[in-house]
Design a protein that fits this description.
The protein is mostly helical. The chain contains six helices and no strands. Helix 5 packs antiparallel against helix 6. It is elongated.
Length: 165
């Protein structure tokens, strides 16, 4: 009996190790943070991946003939929760000097008022999207999706480098 328990525990541990490695490598391709700035850049990258995935899920759902309002609401809530943290994702020292793959432009730190304004606009638009989704009003969600995307684009255009292939 003890042998079976040990085998089960070993199998569980191996499975957890594989799952944890996959989770770590999911968005940052296994990068391990070398400095606090690098860690912040990795966290930022992963958070933006989650934000983008939630926005894509909403858009994909809205293209269906019978969208799932609960799925839209969950993804909008994810976006809202992430957006409230957005300004904290850019501590000084977390740009290219910390992670050369970073797409954050230096003006995030040199034009803090402009960046704060753009981030605030994104937060407001995402909040409106979340409120419409929470109410189950797909018409209002469809009406707000363009403004939300525009707020994201406005920030990207000014504060993010073009994505590299």
């Amino acid at each position: 009996m003890a042998g079976k328990v040990w085998i089960a525990a070993a199998a569980l541990a191996a499975g957890m190790t594989v799952a944890a490695g996959g989770a770590l490598a999911h968005n940052t391709k296994g990068e391990v943070a070398r400095t606090p700035g690098h860690k912040a850049a990795l966290v930022r990258h992963d958070n933006f991946e989650k934000l983008g995935a939630a926005f894509k899920a909403i858009n994909d759902e809205l293209r269906k003939s019978d969208p799932d309002t609960q799925l839209v609401a969950r993804n909008a809530a994810t976006m809202k929760a992430l957006s409230t943290q957005l300004p904290t994702w850019f501590p000084k020292g977390s740009g290219k000097e910390a992670r050369p793959k970073s797409e954050a432009k230096p003006n995030i730190w040199t034009d803090s008022a402009g960046f704060s304004s753009a981030a605030s606009n994104a937060q407001v638009q995402i909040s409106k999207l979340q409120q419409a989704a929470a109410g189950g009003d797909l018409g209002a969600v469809r009406g707000q999706i363009r403004a939300t995307g525009g707020a994201c684009k406005g920030c990207h255009d000014k504060f993010r480098e073009e994505k590299k292939s």
